[in-house]
Design brief:
Layout (H helix, E strand, L loop, with lengths): L1 H39 L2 H4 L10 E4 L5 E5 L4 H4 L2 E5 L6 E4 L4
Antiparallel strand pairs: 1-2, 2-3, 3-4
């Protein structure tokens, strides 16, 4: 009984540590995608970004690419800036049109 409890405890600990590592790795990747997207924008566009660009929303879409969303002073009129980046090559694919 004690042996099975120890195995369960050890398994839980390893699983928890692995999950934390995955989250840290994902956040490091997201930071890289934020930086790529931000540096792709011209200076005048960068100046319109509201808040810290290093905390921009990042999501992975269904085809393995990443989208970085920057809120700007013109969001009410045009919507946010969304930059799509290739997940493998890390090249900017496009900036979505704003309304």
């Amino acid at each position: 009984m004690k042996k099975s409890f120890l195995y369960y405890l050890l398994f839980s600990l390893v699983f928890t540590l692995a999950a934390c590592q995955d989250k840290d790795d994902q956040e490091a990747d997201f930071s890289k995608f934020r930086e790529i997207a931000y540096n792709y924008l011209d200076d005048s566009t960068q100046e319109t970004i509201v808040g810290n660009w290093k905390k921009a929303f990042v999501r992975k879409n269904g085809n393995g690419n990443y989208e970085v969303l920057f809120n700007t002073t013109y969001d009410a009129l045009l919507g946010p800036i969304v930059v799509e980046i290739d997940g493998k090559t890390r090249d900017v694919i496009r900036i979505y049109p704003r309304d």
